[in-house]
Amino acid sequence: MKPTLPGKLVNETPTSPVFSPDGKLVAAGIFGAVRVWDVQSEKFRDYPAELKTETPARIFFSPDGKWMAAGVYGAVRTWDLATGASHDYRMKLRNETPRIIAISPDGQTIATAAFGGLMKWQFQGFPEAN
């Protein structure tokens, strides 16, 4: 039996699927990207990671479901779901990959564990999309 929502590679298992707040989308890490499927139509869109060879371990949707975040090599990367634009929030150590990300209930603050403590940023939107 073939999977309903395919990964990128035949022998790949997508990581940590998560539903958007409204339940209309489901996202998972795949080789080199985050793949987001529309639950109803089963169509998908890929949002590239920092490195072509990395698979984001966990994905986090904003409370309004308009953007998502994941740890990528050296940063927390956010993507605008409508445009695909991305923005990176850099870690102190270049080779540090965040595993768990917290997004405040109002969607304006992003936090993650980092070497020596926590790092937090004000969400800046997607400048390249403006």
TrEMBL record:
<dbReference type="InterPro" id="IPR011659">
    <property type="entry name" value="WD40"/>
</dbReference>
<dbReference type="InterPro" id="IPR015943">
    <property type="entry name" value="WD40/YVTN_repeat-like_dom_sf"/>
</dbReference>
<protein>
    <submittedName>
        <fullName>WD40-like Beta Propeller Repeat</fullName>
    </submittedName>
</protein>
<dbReference type="Pfam" id="PF07676">
    <property type="entry name" value="PD40"/>
</dbReference>
